[in-house]
Amino acid sequence: MTQKINTFLMFQNGDAEEAMTFYTSLFDDAKVVRLTRYGPGEQGAEGKIKNAAFTLAGQEYMCFDSDPRHAFTFTPSISLFVGCDTEKDLDRLYAALSEGGQELMPLSSYGFSTKFGWVNDRFGVSWQLNLP
């Protein structure tokens, strides 16, 4: 068996499907690959995401809705870093991902790239957007 490492996102507010749909609408080569829902009598809320996989720009991610509440959630210390091909694409992604979220570093030239921005989206997932 060949090892494979995937990013796995745990949502605590039942937002996994909404987040996955939002992300796949923003990126090329994006699609839902697998989706399993909690059924009646299972340990999660019926109809919520038990396990799902989706791709963004060909990279696979996994997610689920956690029924038990935890004392932790997403943190910017781990983020999804997106290298953008054009300023227009970077601006589009920044606007969409920051809507309802939090700007950590506004779009600007910080000396290490032409244009860069860092946001937490409305689900709490952290994104770094870079134009080399």
From TrEMBL:
Domain of life: Bacteria
A Pfam family assignment: 3-dmu-9_3-mt
CDD domains: PhnB_like
SUPFAM superfamilies, A to Z: Glyoxalase/Bleomycin resistance protein/Dihydroxybiphenyl dioxygenase
PhnB-like domain ranges (all copies): 3-129
Protein name in UniProt: VOC family protein
